[in-house]
Amino acid sequence: MVDIVLARIDDRLIHGQIMASWVLHTQAQKIIIVDDEVSNDVFLSKVIKMAAPPGIKVEIYSIKGAIHVLKEKFVDKEKVILLVKSPSTMYSLIEGGVKLKEINIGGMSAGPGKKILVKNIFVSLEEKEILNNILTKGIPVYLQTLPDDPKLKIDKYL
To answer: Is 15 designated active site?
Structure first.
């Protein structure tokens, strides 16, 4: 099983905060992005991979592909940051048997039907329900944009 040093929900995927702070903080060697749409878009996949810093491998998978890779492919202890855009993708990974110690939420944009939890994190009623389902599985979920920010347990905000 892969060593997931950070499982993060952030609809921006790879961006400055991830590169500058989280990779350094976690000492990750690889970023795995799980998103059905991105995995099927060759151009977008190339753009995202170019955003990674030198020396950091980026792999992009569909949900189904990621479940296979995260459960069966890895035999070494490579440190990995797991990035998804939404709680539903993270929940699908969990339901598929991917083991996570905890889940970090770093950014979920505003949109129709979404309400603010804290500064840059907005959730719909469906996303709230999914996050509550994750919590009932005993997986801690916290809000934290940068490593130096305090971890805010999400159950206080749902």
So the answer is: yes
Which residue is catalytic, options 15, 64, 101, 115? 15
Share of residues in the chain with pLDDT > 70 (%): 96
DSSP the chain: --EEEEEEEETT-S-HHIIIIIHHHHT-SEEEEE-HHHHT-HHHHHHHHHTSPTT-EEEEE-HHHHHHIIIII--S--EEEEEESSHHHHHHHHHTT---S-EEEEEB---TT-EEEETTEEE-HHHHHHHHHHHHTT--EEE-SSTTSPPEEGGGT-
Q: What's the predicted TM-score (pTM) here?
A: 0.94
